[in-house]
Amino acid sequence: MDIMVYAAQAWLNLTYRGRIGYNEIPEDGITGWATMYALTRALQIELGIAVTSDNFGSQTMAACPTLSVNSIPEDITDSNIVRILQSAMYCKGYSPGDISGNYTVATKDGIQQMQSHAGLSNTDGVATPLIFKALLTMDAYVLLPGGDSNIRTIQRNLNRDYYPAIGGLIPCDGIYGRNTCKAMIMSLQIKGGVAVDGLWGPSTVATLPVLVYGNSNRDYNYLLQYALYANGFSPNGFDGLFGNGCRTAVQNFQEFCMITVDGIVGARTWASLMVSAGDTSRSATACDCSTTVTAPRAATIYNNGYRIVGRYLTGGWKEIQPGEIQTIFNADLKIFPIYQTSGDSAGYFNYSRGGVDAVKAIVAAKKNGFKPDTTIYFAVDFDALDHHVTNNILPYFRGIYNQFTSSNPGYKIGIYGPRNVCSRIGGAGYSTSSFVSDMSTGFSGNLGYKLPNDWNFDQILEYSIGSGEGQIAIDKNICRGNYMGESSVIESSGVTTSDIVALANNLDGIMNRLGITFTSPEAEIVLINTPLVKISANFSVSSVFSEGDGLLVKVENGQIVSAEGEVFDVTGAFDIDGATLGAKIASWEGIDFSVSMTTTPTGTKIRLINQYNAEYFDQIGYLTEQLTIEFKSLNEILLETQISAAFDDILEWVDENSGLILGICIVAVVIAIIGLLGIGISTIAAAIASFASALMTYGMIIVFLMFFTNKIFEEDIT
């Protein structure tokens, strides 16, 4: 906690609490976006802007004053503006002396320090609107942990040479990203005399010079050296000269990007340095498509210079169709497989989903006859931010990797996605080859990130080719040649039992959540078998959907979709690790299940049935997992244990059978699930609910009854 940041937060809330357009913030002494947004809104209130926002936009810029040690405000409004500036300085790590409302020499010194850190040649200590705007961000102007001092030099030099024409200060934290990348594009636009918008287009390209060894165009040479270093190819310093080091770096970069290696920096090399897609007009030998490749379309693909086609293993209408692979081979084309079902948002990705998708991909690849060593590219098809990679995508690929490792299918793991996603997954060791979605040039994971070291396919343009029956929409892909796709397949060996078991154990359902592992279909796993209750699990496969006998309720993703008859209604909590099981089950998002109850003369059975569509298997259509809880009737219990059983034996069983505790927990889980439904109640259900909510007590009552009955039996005999 920083005491001055706390003071700034406290002053903000005290001054602006209740004012229209201001959002109160936590007073925790920790700088964050919430505090910066609050400072921005406070400034807008002081400037008389009617509708405030978190953004320091053009209206705020136009109204913002220039402040200096020579312009000390006299009224409270201007004084508060200075306090906002001073509060922002503390949040950025620069001391203004105090939050006094007076632009003191200490305030000037703090602004000068910031200007120096940012690389500005003019460190006059004057807070212009652009300086004010820079203070109201989380951008750092000092080297951060993990930053590169050479990148920081580039950032400071860009600020020095092109501020304020590039729209303000860029961070000087040593981390290359979209702001630095856009600043370099803007710098090229400034030099070329075109509109400065940070967008790469024909007008920008038209102004670019061709740079060759020994040229004397120092300003462009500097920008070239910056871009080379940012892309991972050091020119051996930033001196504004196109010498041997710069030429070698250019040649190595050209070879890496699969463009002509000549050491000359023309439009194509500039494009590859500045934007992820590079020059989209360059020729390519690979493509991918979501449309079935028919014979006419295959001919179109071949005639346009393509030799490799990417197709989808799953995905309904876009997946590989029967006979399609042979059609591709007949046209002298190769094929590489892509796996994607959804994957268009961060919420899709997690560890469990990775295990399931791994099995689905393996099965689909086998179904289509792909041989061992085939690379399957798993898709991440959205604008993933870095925290999405950390929290969602890395666990997802860890799930894929672990499943591939345990099942050993012989296939290799590839990844399709933006540059940053591919680099981080490959860097973690979860993939061996990247298929980069570079045509999405505005993606956060592309702009400001270098091409992954393990890239093999580089997707640069979406367009249509051919006409009539041969017309097809494709994505143009540059192929690096590390993996060239498959030129043949083998006869499908079909789905094995191990494939089905792997799928059952990876599905994110009830059994997975309870830690139950299957070994084979239909085999019963007995978890608890006592005189009171028997609990078992099994899974099966079938070609038809069956909801089972005695269906009462069907739940999909936590929502009741159908109900028949009366349903259990249970009150009472089952506390495990400080949380009720009801609350735990309520948090199990994504589980679909049915609750089934049947009664027999010997007791009552409750089944939790979880059924999955598995149409990607040839032999089956559905996989069903089932947890069965069988409550035995009192007569049955007395019959099984025998009236003459000794009291000590029964008591010993109750004391030593540790599995009974697990039985209590699992029964409680079932009853808690049923209790969440809350639709109605039946006499039998009420009895079972009462039984489950106090199972140990009930068990002791049975012991007592057995003991009492045994005593009567003994007395009758005597």
Automatic annotation (TrEMBL):
UniProt key word Protein transport: no
Peptidoglycan binding-like domain: residues covered: 80-135, 223-273
Span of domain Rv2525c-like glycoside hydrolase-like: 300-468
Keyword Transmembrane in annotation: yes
Alphabetically ordered keywords of this record: Membrane, Transmembrane, Transmembrane helix
Pfam family name, one: PG_binding_1
UniProt-recorded name of the protein: DUF1906 domain-containing protein
InterPro entries tied to this protein: GH, Peptidoglycan-bd-like, PGBD-like_sf, PGBDSf, Rv2525c-like_Glyco_Hydro-like
Chain ranges passing through the membrane: 660-679, 686-708
